[in-house]
Amino acid sequence: MAENENPIRFGILGCAEIARKVCRAIHLSPNATLVAIASRSIDKAKQFAARNKLSSGKVKLYGSYEELLDDPIVDAVYMPLPTTLHVKWGVMAAQKGKHLLLEKPTALDVNMFDEMFEACECNGVQFMDASMWYHHPRTAKMKEVMSNSELFGRVKSIHSSSSYCGTSQFLENDIRVKPDLDSLGALGDAGWYCIGAILWTMNQKLPTTVTALPTTQRNSSGVILSCSASLYWDEEQTIATFYCSFISHETMDLAVSGSNGSLHFEDFIIPYEENSAAFSFTSGAKFVDLHIGWNVKPKEVEVPTQLPQEAMMIQEFSRLVKGIRDVGVQPDTTWAQTSRTTQQVLDAVKISIDNGYKVVEM
Fold this sequence. Notes:
16 strands; alpha/beta; six-stranded parallel β-sheet; 26% strand; Rossmann fold; 34% helix; 10 helices; 2 domains; single chain; globular
């Protein structure tokens, strides 16, 4: 059966701004189609449909989340709701047999994540968080380079950053700075990417210790606006650091140093261009005589893609769901385990911050 036959039928649960990007991604993916939109009011659903030029004849509009979850035509839901609502609606979606593509951070802590994932397992539905950068072909190419022990060697240090300077309106009104909606703030939003990138580099192995650094800044409600932390792997003797912030200039950096090589790029979350992305790689670099230069320059590796990374995420998620729906295969738990390890480290950073920057053993 061709991939674009009997596509996975998506519903979007919530009309957040990021939902517009995923709406487009569903349209671009060859094995997915959008069939329903739900908001807390029918007017908001209609506004979203109009803004995204969605035909009312092809996409159903609902004024409550329950109505969409009760629609038997919907195979899967994309859920860009505030983090505090993830467990309630994630569990309900799973109980209704809807496969779940969930915005990050997945939950406020790992116990909440486990409650949600248990519901997915009990009901045989696929889980994936919406970290789009994993699905870009550049990511696979970088893993190939780092896996070459001759060229790269063993990973010794990692640094990641994710930051942007929020406007005064953002810092006052955005859900990501509201303790009752997204109490993890910059740690949950931007820090999720940093921690995920570090764990991806370490093949999802949890660090031995996690220590937040005494640089945390909060708003008047106690929500984190900026923080940083270090992670250490005792067996590998590998150190990682990250910085995440709502109050500094735009960064999306990942730098990895191995015993034989190094890798770096500055747009790991959102590539500079949609149809191609690059990273720099150096192997065997040394200083020339008199230390007046280098013997090699970094090599720029360009990786093209036919689909934007968010569409490739939808394509991969839909491929997994089609296997479950059409062939009866079991859900792939790899993505859930990736989310869980990220959540565990995020929790450890938060615990370290709350306990005066003490070391947290994993």
